[in-house]
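Subject: sequence -> structure tokens, single chain

Hey, anyone have a minute? Need the predicted structure for the following. Not urgent.
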Amino acid sequence: MATKFKLKGKIQVLYYKAGKVFIAYAQALDLSSCGSTFDEADKNLEEAINILFEECDERGTLENVLANCGWESRSERGMRVWSPPAVIGQKEIGIAACAFACCESRPERPVPLS
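Reply:
Had a minute. Here:
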């Protein structure tokens, strides 16, 4: 099934390392992949994105998937154009999960990390 719309813009990819595995995550598509090197994880994510688009296009579900991932559509020269959600910020926050799992009694509020 050939779709009559286009995708426009760029998506942000976050990279993580978990042990010896590199993870590439595209939040705008809620899709990730991994590899034994950074480049392999990147290549595998690109392949996964292409497969996602191809499979959704064949099933006629790509517009629904994009809408569910927060993409916005608009009409441009008689064609529907989809744009990914804009990243407006990013920050790291400390977590204190061990404060609950390691203690016999749960504290009233999380213990801040130093």
